[in-house]
Design goal:
heterodimer; A: alpha/beta; 2 domains; 5-stranded mixed sheet; 3-stranded parallel sheet; 9 helices; 8 strands; 46% helix; B: alpha/beta; TIM Barrel; 6-stranded parallel sheet; two-stranded antiparallel ribbon; 16 helices; binds iron/sulfur cluster
Amino acid sequence: MSTTVYYDGTWQGLLTAIFEDYEYRLQSCIIVKSGTAVTQSLFGRTHQVYTDKKKALRVKNGLLKNVGKVALQELYCAFLSEKEGIEVLILRVVQYYMAGEKSVHSNYAHEDVLQIKKIHKSVMRERHRFKAFVRFRESTDGIFLALIEPDFNVLPLISTHFKDRYADQLWIIYDVKRQYGLHYDKSTVREIVFDKSIDVKQLEAVCSTEEQLYDRLWKRYFQSTNIVERKNTKLHVQHVPKRYWKYLNEKEG
Amino acid sequence: MQAERIQEKLEILADAAKYDVSCSSSGSNRKNTKRGLGNTGAGICHTYTEDGRCVSLLKILLTNHCIFDCAYCVSRRSNDIKRAAFTVQEVVDLTINFYRRNYIEGLFLSSGIFKDADFTMERLVLVAKKLRQEHHFNGYIHLKTIPGASDELLYEAGLYADRLSVNLEIPTESGLKLLAPEKNRKDMDEPMDYLKGEIVRTKEEKKIIKSTPKFAPAGQSTQMIIGAADETDRHIIQTANHYYATYQLKRVYYSGYIPISHDKRLPGIGAAVPAIRENRLYQTDWLMRFYGFRHDEVLDEQHPNLDLDIDPKLSWALRHLDQFPVDINKSPYELIVRVPGIGVTSAKKIVAARKFGKLRLEHLQKIGVSLNKVRYFIICEGFLPLKSDKPAVLLKQYILAESQSKYQKALSSQLSLF
Ligand code: SF4
């Protein structure tokens, strides 16, 4: 009989769910974050997962042994896509990985594996974009603040990059859509949640005069480096899709 | 007031620098040491200009004053334009502040030549030195090498910069003589030769002594302007090949000439930028660097110019139909990667996936190969190539008819200008 599985929405939680699917032979057909409304089939069972680090670790180690680090990271990235149904897809692929011989994860002809690779690719593209499309503004108290609204939950994937790069400055990158951010205090990165929602206008209000100067200089630079004779708006928008413009100061009027 | 002057300078000196198309920030991996600022290796484009080019570096001239008079250059001394010059400190401040806001990967500093080569080079080096030593800056630095600068200065430049470049600008020596009679190829070759020697030497030393300081870890590059003189594509690619081989350049850039002058020796103002030709040259360059093609396979005496309506790989394949079809399930990687429509990534995936079973057309599609071109050139499980008995001209017609080539569209709009 098929089961609807509820978990806490975390990666550890999903790994636990995958373990329990095997442990209790659940035949999970839907795995969703607790609180999500789903249409229950009349005869289906439900199962509540409580995140268990030990169980999660066993799945992780099993994957590491069978398919290695790269394939595991692919699954994690796919998870961060937050796409509907991603949990069950990951479950199926894990089952395939655990049953098969080695290096099955390079089987590009397998439907589910291919699907994971595709999603992984788009998450990685988003990650790469958000190494680029973060714009810090320096506040009067010397913190460099940036707001983002990525399609996928990429903050965990860009944290190290920003920590390494801006090791000597205080910074916050805040995901407005998901209502949480990263705060770096020159030694560690921590997750933070603002108690009020925040927008660009509020950011501007706390900016230093120096910030205004460099903001203007950057906008001027962006205009001056353009070659009018080569104008190619289509290509431009392809590289910097409009949905990202909101937080890019060079794209402000 | 001060702020306004800086803005004006930035406008003038960014505008004058924009014709250098290189904006690469890769090829180096400087770590952020001792909690300094920045690192390199990520190769990030922070934004794109409205003409669709990547903006990765703050690309400016130190000054657009110049004692030379190269016809193809906006900064030439006979050109009546606004002139400006940054101080060393101004460039340092701009770089650091842009970098801290995550606008850029680093600095690309070039300059007109004021007074003489050494005087100019010294200031470029000073900017890089200050960034590295005073600001512990580990972001990317690309410096222009000024032909005629002393070896000591070049050496210092190599210690601080990730990449160094001398632009050849005009692909042929005759063209250079015509458009920039004060310059000659030899002056450009000398610094490249010296730097190549130092780069190789440092690499060797580093193998033995780990602490050997980096020396221009992202190597050297150059740029050629396309369509200012009357060179053929074969000239250009031969020159590129020569410089890749002799000076171990990391990149050669091709920059379609943008008309900036009424000089009779040059295409007039309003002439179209040869964007498609430029693109075909880049494709050829890639074929040489990543696909295992020799330069004289792509262009030779009979074919001195690249086709504009089809890409150089397809063009090569149509001239060498005897080498096809390629068997997707059996042929070595080297041949698979030569199939029109199959890129390096797809070729690698094919070789990986065929271990699990014979590949069919639908597998290729799933891997991301578009069948439009491919199906004339391959065999795979359950599939024989289409119309393989037809002559090349016909195949080309079939392929073109099916692909609404964006270049074709662009091409017709470009041609309609005449
Ligand atoms: S030397 Fe360089 S800056 Fe001066 S005119 Fe020639 S190309 Fe332009």
